Amino acid sequence: MAEAIVHLVLNKLVEVAVTETLRLYGAGGQLDSLQSELRWIQAFLKDAEAKKNLDHRAKTWVSEVRDMAYKIEDVIDTFMAEVDDHKNRQGVINALKQVLRNPKKLPIVRKLTSEMDAIEIRLQKIKEFTERYGINRDLKEDLSSNPSRPFKGVVLPDQDDLDVVGLEADKEEIVKLLLDPNTPRRRVVSIVGQGGLGKTTLAKKAYNSDKVKKEFGIRVWLSISQQFEFINVLSMVLEGIRPLNEDEKAFLKDPKSQPRAVQHFARQLNSLLKEQRYLIIMDDVWTPDLWDQVKDVLPNTENGSRVLVTTRISEIATKADSTCDPYNMRYLRVEESQELLLKNAFPFQDPKAYLDSLSDLPKKFAQKCGNLPLALKVVGGRLSRELPTYNSWHKILQKLNWHDGDEKNCTDILATSYEDTPAYLKPCFMYFAIYPEDCRIKVKPLIRMWVSEGFIPEKNGTTMEETAEDYLEELVQRSMIQVVERHLNGSIKYCRVHDLLRDLAIEKAKENNFLQIISNQSDTWCGSSTTVRRAALLSNSKDIMQFTGPNLRSLFYFDNDTENFSFSTTLKILFGIGGNSREAHGLPIISKKMTQLRYFGNFNDANPNLAVVAKFWKSISHMRNLQTLHLFCGYCPEADCIWNIKTLRHVILPGYGLLGPPPKTDLPNLQTLKSVIVRESWLVEGWPKLPSIRVLHLDDLPPNYKESFCNFLIEAPHLTSLNISFNFSGRSYEMLDWSSFPSYNHMQSLVVGGSQDNYFCIGGINHKALDIRSFPIHLIKLTIYECDFQEDPMPVIEKLKNLRKLVLTNSRHYQKQISCSAGGFPRLEYLELGVLVLLREWKVEKGGMPLLKEIFINQCSDLVVIPELQHMARLNKLTLWVLHEDLRERLQGEESYKLQHIPSIKFIPN
User: Fold this and answer.
1) CB-based burial of residue 20 (10 Å sphere; 0-12 exposed, 13-18 middle, 19+ buried)?
2) Environment class of 901 (CB within 10 Å of its CB; exposed 0-12, middle 13-18, buried 19+)
3) For residues 574 and 226, what is the distance between their CA atoms, to the nearest angstrom?
4) Whose CA is closest to 662, among 638, 687, 630, 637?
5) 578 close to 606: Cβ distance less than 8 angstroms
6) How far from the centroid of its chain's Cα atoms is residue 309's Cα?
7) 31-44 pLDDT, tens digit each
8) Pairing label, strands 732-733, 760-762
9) What is the CA radius of gyration of the chain?
């Protein structure tokens, strides 16, 4: 891990802002010396860390190096904060004059020089120890800057395919138990086994079985952690059946109403579940208390309903249902273990070509891993990074520690694979320790935090965010992280980390003072007396003001009161997720001296008063190094000051009416801007300059927008996602000719519509018909809302050959008929028709929409004719909500043949 810490510090020392500031203040020579010494030391670290479990002297040396790297980071961060404070006090011009006259007379420079001199002396002693202790001096290359077989950013095949070996018979047995006709009353089926055996994988296979989808009208999956709240369990089950209404969402935000909320959700669930055969999956249950609370809510009617529980504790299975023996997960057989190992070691190739040269090594790996699936996948992922030769695989085999096949030994295997992970990936992996158990992790905030932490190097021609995505894909390939969901373009949308790997991330983070976890009242904060760099508060039971310290760089909090902060001026990341209503306390007032802040995310959706909002914006305006701002917050005039921050990369402020940057504002690094209102002044004085913009969400475009907006699009060559709404109604809107813009060939997502209550005609003035050039040619997602077409748009839209998701929604005056030709929509997978109140007929010729997987029809109350869905062979999910009564009766009666092939059908009551 010391190699990783040194790697991060070297990245910091080559940051443009740091190098320019140090050279300006007369510390350029010491900067060069530091870089040279650290690169020399880094060249020895990988071998030294490999030896540290055997050699106490090497272990001590590595610890010294890690602490020295942290010290360098502290000195640089503190100096940068003091420079900002100096500029604030003196003014930028006066501060610059003082520096140019004689920088060595400035107190902050004298302090920096003294500290860096002490660091250099200490680094010289570390070099002497290297010689004295005989630590490997023969390493020829810089391991961190030239890792072997660098990752190319390839996307893995479907992760399920790599997970499943030897489970087909087990899946059929679980499905048989779930569908047993001889047990009409509610039954609890339990899958029991140690961590890493594949309980969740098996449950998913059964849950997604076509037989199960057809038999259960309601299916809900719940991931249960060691710490759960009963009200959240109930609300998640209800939300899996129907959307929560506004009152129910308010219940969840108000802790005072929790007893009433529990009663409400329980009544609603009991009423809905009585009517249909249901399957509830409760994955990873740790306590019998959960079943004691849930059992009275779930109806015990004689319709064959089921609950499937996965757990490591057999007592839970017995208590839940003593009439059904738990299904005990078995270890894989040797041949199955070899198959799983090779699937992960050769995700893109046929391993048969290498089996002869590898001899009996696959079998030995299977034995070493104790035939445990998780260990096999992680080791297979590790082997996928090596040349498939006997010698290279044999070296990995010799490092593995395994004895009797229990969970502790599995952890040893995982730890060995972690130690073999490249230095640049170790901090990224340890970062997963900040998330609660079984958390569904949203990837975009994660990689933006990696960038803000300095984990990601700058590369020519590639954004740091793109490099971070490659790092995440490499962790997936190594089976250290699991993909939950991908975007339609193949990038990862949500991921998760297995419990055992999360435990490993926490262990390594604590061991290296990388992160401290505060999860309950008994945990003691030690940040003020140690070098803890990051803190994750996973419970709202702690006063957030306790958690401060001179070395703290990042703070992650969940459901904590954040009215006032008083943290280190070197804090870089402040990331909070709010679940309970905090009224005005949901928005922190942070210190103006926290100028090193790079990432601020606060997802508490409380609506603070204007005074609190104004104070917040005034404080955030001083964050001149801010890269990401992501929060729910109201607009006030003081908010305009954020557009003076030139380092901004991502600004996400959904739905609160923030005015966009002033005209001609230059934001060279901004990649994401959501959601801002278009200023009228842009049309006259000029749009802001956003040369790096990739994702843009603009509200309230005025009627005369077109000429100036087209000029802006010409200057936005990297744009991949655009969401625009218009503030004029009763007028005709001419679609743009996208073929004239640089983004025509790489735009992936387009959302276009009217502002609330502002409907407009779409299709062009003078009744000009839509043209394929009206859309970027390679669109993957298209949403059109609150607008009306002068003619059926489908004949044009169906020609978008890469379109995979189409949403047409919210129209009072839509076409009464839409149709699709035999060759139309060749790659479409998801179609949503919502609130099209005049739509009566939807037709699709045979051969149209051949890859369609999911249809959602929402509140199309006049719709009476739908296509022959039986011709759509891949359709596996159909949701119908607020449907015309005649159509509903026909689909459930004489036209039910259209739906017989669809595994999952949901009729949501009107």
Assistant:
1) exposed
2) middle
3) 26
4) 687
5) yes
6) 26
7) 777 777 777 777 66
8) parallel
9) 30
pTM value is: 0.82
Contact residues for 121 (Cβ-Cβ < 8 A; gap 6+): none
What is the β-pairing status of strands 721-726 and 672-677?
unpaired
Q: Which amino acid is at 838?
A: L
The pair of three-digit structure tokens given for residue 623, joined into one six-digit string: 């964050």
Q: What are phi and psi of 367, to 5 degrees?
A: -70, -40
Torsion angle of alpha carbons 103, 104, 109, 113, nearest 10°? 140
The sign one gets for the Cα dihedral 363, 498, 598, 665 is: positive
The letter for the amino acid at 296 is D
- Secondary structure of 84-142 in the HEC alphabet? HHHHHHHCHHHHHHHHHHCHHHCHHHHHHHHHHHHHHHHHHHHHHHHHHCCCCCCCCCC
Residue 679 in tokens: 């200023």
Burial class of residue 47 in the structure, from the number of CB atoms within 10 Å of its CB (0-12 exposed, 13-18 middle, 19+ buried) = middle
Angstrom distance (rounded) from CA 885 to CA 595: 61
Structure-token match 């045979």, residue found: 846
Alpha helices in 194-257 (DSSP H): 199-207, 210-215, 230-241, 246-253
8-state DSSP, 699: E
Q: 723: Cβ–Cβ under 8 A, 6 or more apart, which residues? A: 674, 675, 696, 697, 698, 749, 750, 751, 752
d(CA 612, CA 606): 12
End-to-end CA distance of the chain: 58
Strand partners, 192: 311, 328
Provide the 3-class DSSP secondary structure of residue 15.
Answer: coil
Q: Find the angle CA(26)-CA(29)-CA(35) to the nearest 5 degrees.
A: 125
Q: Which tens digits make up the pLDDT trace of 372-418?
A: 888 888 888 888 888 888 888 888 888 776 554 455 567 777 887 88
Handedness of CA 337, 342, 345, 348 (dihedral sign): negative
Cα dihedral sign for 561, 563, 569, 574? positive
Per-residue model confidence as pLDDT tens digits over 649-693: 999 986 666 889 999 999 999 999 998 899 989 999 999 999 999
What's the whole-number mean pLDDT along residues 254-280?
Answer: 84
Alpha helices in 738-894 (DSSP H): 794-797, 885-891
Contact 68, 121 (CB under 8 A): no
Instruction: Kindly write down the DSSP assignment for every residue of 138-175, as one continuous string.
Output: ---S-TTTS-SS----PPPSPHHHHH-SS-HHHHHHHH
Q: What is the pLDDT of residue 728?
A: 72
Per 3-state DSSP, what percentage of the chain is helix, strand, and coil (rounded to 5)?
A: 40, 15, 40
SS3 per-residue string spanning 324-375: CCCEECCCCCHHHHHHHHHHHHCCCCCCHHHHHHHCCHHHHHHHHCCCCHHH
Structure confidence at residue 160 (pLDDT): 46
Other CB atoms within a 10 A radius of the CB of residue 290 amount to 20
